[in-house]
Amino acid sequence: MLTSGHEQEASSVPDADLNPTETTGYKVGQQKTVEELAQLDAEDESLVRWKASLGVGAGAKPTAGSGPAVTVLSLSLSSPSRPTPIELDLTTPAALSALKSDPIVIKEGAEYSVELRFRVNHGLVSGLKYIQVVRRLGKNWDKLEAMCGSYGAKDEPYVKKFPAEEAPTGMIARSGTYTVRSRVTDDDKTVHADFEWYFKLGKEW
C-alpha cells in the first residue's frame, strides 16, 4: 500500500506503531523557503557548504511546485553474503502487492542493510525520517527508526543507507511470513510514503 494517490487496504500494523519518537526539548524550527535560505549569511563558508549539500543556492529549484514534495522510488536490502541487492520498486504498486503471495526471502542470521532511494521534487524537506515495523503472528518483532536528514529539491535521487541489522535465526523464526510496514515522514509530520512489504526467512537467500 502506498500513499501516493493509491487506494489503501487496512494494515495489520497499527498506525500508532509508526509514530516517531519525540525528542525531549526538541522544537521544530520555523520553516524557510529555498529562496530565504539562499539569502542567509552568503559570506559564511560553512553555511554555504551546508546549503550546497541541501541543493540550496545557485541553480536550486524553487519552493513552489505541484505534486508531492518527496517521491520514494525504491527500497533495497543489501548484504555482504549476497552478490546483488534485493530492490523493491515503490513506483509500481502491483509489484509491491505481489509480495503478499510471493514474499522475498532473507537468509536467517544474515547481516543486511536497508537503503532508501528518493527524490525531492520541490522546496526543502526538513528532518526526513524512515520508520519501519516488522510484525508476525499479531506481534511486533522489530522497529527501525532512522533519521535521513534535510534535503533540497534536485533532479538526481538521494540515497540513504541505514545501519546494518541481523535477521533472526531458528526454526520458529523461519515459520510464517513477516509483514513490514514502512513510513517516510518529516519534522512537520507529513507522511511522504506509507507502504507494506513481506518476507520470509530461509536457510539461504
Automatic annotation (TrEMBL):
GO molecular-function terms, A-Z: GTPase activator activity; Rho GDP-dissociation inhibitor activity
Cellular component GO terms held in the UniProt record: cytosol; membrane
Top-level taxonomy: Eukaryota, Fungi, Dikarya, Basidiomycota, Pucciniomycotina
Protein name per the record: Rho GDP-dissociation inhibitor
Subcellular location: Cytoplasm
Keywords annotated in UniProt: Cytoplasm, GTPase activation
Alphabetical list of Pfam families matching this protein: Rho_GDI
Domain of life: Eukaryota
Gene Ontology BP term (one): Rho protein signal transduction
Major place of residence: cytoplasm
Residue ranges, annotated region (Disordered): 1-31
Family: Belongs to the Rho GDI family.
